[in-house]
TrEMBL record:
Coiled coil: none annotated. The keyword Disulfide bond does not apply. It comes from Clostridium sardiniense. Belongs to the peptidase M42 family. Residues 182-272 form the Peptidase M20 dimerisation domain. This is M20/M25/M40 family metallo-hydrolase.
């Protein structure tokens, strides 16, 4: 039976341990201690050394029935900023921060619920397959932990990531690939008041290119955005250079390739027409994942939610998560909603009931696996 007070106390304890991206060491030590108390074998990889962080990913294993297929659960340890000195406040069965920081439910609610479920499995002596747990670092700054995870230590070929907003019972089976597009446009400086006709304004060139592009919602699978534009030195100087950060995303690679090419070609075309120089770098940040709704892993989650009386919804996401990286490394995974509300903001909050519901869901999935 899930212990409501125990999982709540654990969540409150966890969110008060600061763990902003690349600074997860103290939190990882606490999690290692808690996992070992339950009886899991725990190790860490060297992902932290690779990315310049304070610790690596946690990889833990609870051995079980070897006749059943192993099962993986994954959460990330890091939080966005501001995530230091979080002061939780409970009001009407909802947990808030004091308004000066985020709360950290993304993703410590998932971690607390998973720990509670593992304790329950041991207490109730549930027959279970081997359960593997991954707690990753630096997810919030580019999925760095899962990208550098030591996959040779992972046995499972199926898994669940506990890290998305929405009502418990929601299954995310599609997530887009993302291209990061870095652009430098170089024009020509001139005195803006004396001889502006002798200059080439990089800001003007960039503006013309952006206006000529298809951006934001392209179709049901694809989005694109100009995120930042930096340039210029003074109002009396025709801007000689701008630096632009942009992105494109799609759950279908052919559409992503087409959108990225469109953006690159447009920048190049307008720069040629305006006699400006253009430098562009495209980086595939992560690949897409698509798990068919009839797949066994979705059937497992759906059956478990239905057994608990939760409404099941299967949907796609426009954001990236460790789910993308796991699927690209041979682990079929979907993302399960854990009730995150207003994540990445000072208004982030979390319902205590959802901690219990997520814990119950994990237990039910383990029993049915």
């Amino acid at each position: 039976m899930i212990n409501r007070e125990r999982v709540l106390d654990r969540f409150i304890e966890y969110i008060q341990i600061s763990s902003e991206s690349k600074n997860e060491k103290v939190f990882s030590e606490k999690l290692t201690e808690d996992l070992e108390k339950i009886g899991l074998e725990v190790s860490r990889d060297n992902a932290g050394d690779i990315i310049g962080g304070t610790t690596g990913n946690i990889i833990a294993k609870l051995k079980g029935d070897e006749s059943r297929e192993p099962l993986l659960f994954s959460c990330h340890m890091d939080t966005v900023t501001p995530g230091i000195n979080i002061k939780p406040i409970i009001k009407d069965n909802i947990i808030y921060s004091d308004g000066t920081t985020i709360l950290g439910g993304d993703d410590k609610a998932g971690i607390a619920a998973l720990i509670e479920a593992l304790i329950n499995v041991k207490e109730e002596q549930v027959n279970h397959p081997t359960i593997e747990v991954i707690f990753t670092i630096a997810e919030e700054i580019g999925l760095c932990g899962s990208k550098n995870l030591d996959y040779s230590k992972i046995e499972s070929k199926r898994g669940f990531v506990l890290d998305t907003s929405g009502e418990v019972g929601t299954i995310v089976n599609k997530g887009p690939a993302q291209d990061k597009i870095d652009i430098i446009i170089k024009g020509k400086p001139a005195h803006a008041g004396v001889a502006p006709e002798n200059g080439i304004s990089a800001i003007n060139v960039a503006s013309k290119a952006i206006v000529a592009m298809n951006l934001l919602r392209i179709d049901e699978d694809t989005t694109a955005n100009i995120g930042t534009i930096k340039g210029g030195t003074a109002t009396n100087i025709v801007c000689p250079e701008v630096v632009i950060e942009a992105e494109a995303r799609s759950t279908k690679i052919d559409k992503l390739d087409k959108q990225t090419k469109h953006m690159v070609d447009t920048f190049n075309k307008i720069c040629d027409e305006e006699n400006a120089e253009c430098q562009i770098k495209v980086t595939r940040v992560y690949g897409q994942f698509v798990v068919d709704e009839t797949d066994d892993i979705i059937k497992l989650a759906s059956k478990s939610f239905e057994n608990l009386g939760y409404n099941v919804e299967i949907k796609s996401s426009g954001g990236g998560s460790d789910t993308n990286i796991l699927n690209c490394n041979g682990i079929k995974a979907v993302n399960l909603a854990i009730g995150e509300r207003s994540p990445h903001t000072l208004d982030e909050h979390y319902h205590i009931d959802d901690l219990v519901k997520v814990s119950k869901s994990i237990c039910e999935i383990i029993q049915n696996a």
